[in-house]
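Q: How would the structure tokens look for this protein?
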Amino acid sequence: MNSHLIEVFKDKELKARIQKKLPRLFRIAELESSRAGNIGMQVGSLRENIIIALLIYKFGEENVETGIPITEPEVDLKLFGQSISIKTITGKGLSGVKLTWTVDTQKAREFCESYYPCCDVLLVQINWDAEGGFYYLPLEIQRKVFTKIGKERYIKLPKPGTNPRGVEISKEALEALVADKDSKAIGIYWRRMEIDYDPYERWVDHWREE
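A: Here is the predicted structure in token form.
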């Protein structure tokens, strides 16, 4: 297991900071990604950057590698050389976590055939005005659950004839991962606060600079 990630979940001061700040920062990410009240797909990248920034804050920029080739479909960063994937979901249930994004049915099948858990996962469950959480799902636990329930139950392929948008971890697998005694969790109450935030302001300020 990644001892550095375990440290994040044991650090009481950092835990309190995460519980306080993450809802506000993710709310800002939504506001930055919204147009006419609809949240755009780019919100996922902003959320990912917020979690990466948390790790940089904790461990220092020199220990967080973010220049991961796009050919690595799951790995989002490396912490002290260890690969990590960041995943976020919205809602009260543990479902809808993408393993890979694709609109190609054949590529989805190929991904499924060759898939085996390859890195630690940091999962954020956003549940506005209710309880959610921030989870560390160690690679060893993913592989244990994968072996126990099998690939067919671990992976959820898109239904034929629909817009697939990606291959998911099944609800059964995700619930087993989160419930495992060796996974780590920080409970978060996702209070949706009203923020007076202008997504264009900082860019206007840059234009004003000499």
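The helical segments are 3-10, 12-33, 43-59, 105-114, 139-149, 151-154, 171-179, 201-208.

The chain has a mean pLDDT of 90.

Upvote if useful.
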